[in-house]
Amino acid sequence: MEQRNSVKSFVGKPVGRLLIAALATATLIGSFLLLSPVISIPTFLFFGLAIPIYLGWKRPRQLAIMGLAVLLVAAPIGSLWEAQIVRQPSPLGNSDNFAPYGNGGSVLQNAHVTPFDGAGGATYNFSVEVFPQYVPANTSGLLWVELFVTTCVGATGNNSPYCPTPYPFYSPNSTLPSNLTSPSTVYFDQPLSGSNIWWFQFATAYRSGPDQNLTWIFLDPNNGYGAIEGPVSGSYTSTVELVIPSLYQDMFFYPGAVFFLALLIYYVFKRREAARQGGAGPGSPPASSPDVATSSPSTGSPPAGSPKGSAPARGAAEMHCPNCQAVVYANETSCWKCGAALTRPVPAAEAPLAGGRT
User: Fold this and answer.
1) What is the pTM of this model?
2) How much is the average pLDDT of 204-218?
3) Number of domains observed in the structure of the chain
């Protein structure tokens, strides 16, 4: 118990609160970048709200200021880490190997870009290996290979509902020989301007059926974006500047919004608890105790200026629950908090004399 009280005493000091805020910041950044924005929600609630409250940091206003400070600091610090992750080469990309996009193997394999990070305005080499033997039977064979490079994730055109226009978009293509039967590698050299985080996608197509319908085959990177990240053009500093706005947006939208909603709920419950105990609200000074209030004359008559027959002042018959120590109003027979039955002491004026009348 002494150790717990000493921890609470330390947290009550400025250096202790600073360490709590630093812990919440570190866990928020780590869970957000290494796990996912969704996982960062319970992490931030635990380290940014539950632990401070448990250690005695109970004022909602202070908790709100701490949460806001953590969010404002976490995004710039996290962007330094995120920029390094973004500039790491993405895995090689392949297309699906099931019909109608494949036939026992992937038609498009080992798609990548070289270099993965370079200067703005430099030329980047995109390549993909084509395996025509995996095209489904009774088709026209592969017709062409097309490359899509853009800053709008997953876009295969210059107008996407998910990105504000205009955005950079390049789509060079290469026609394949009609008699292509052996594996072949297709290359595209594409200059990319400015400092950006790019995404690319390869596609090929064939015709089949009596109507010669066109079937498209795309890379399937299995990352939820429908495209492969890369390349990254520009310096490390420019990448950090590109990452910061999205981190601010996502951190405030996911863990931030839930944090402040939980804090609002906590504030409402604290207000209700304070109202039941006769206080003005969380963080307010406690009401004066009846024991130290100015006592009335012991003549049995009501105080001067009081209406005749008025009820006794609130708190005069309040008591602490013997089970949970909550303050219980007068005339209540059970505790509002834990439900324990209450046995009220007999007032001294009504208690029988110890020795009786002589």
Assistant:
1) 0.70
2) 94
3) 3
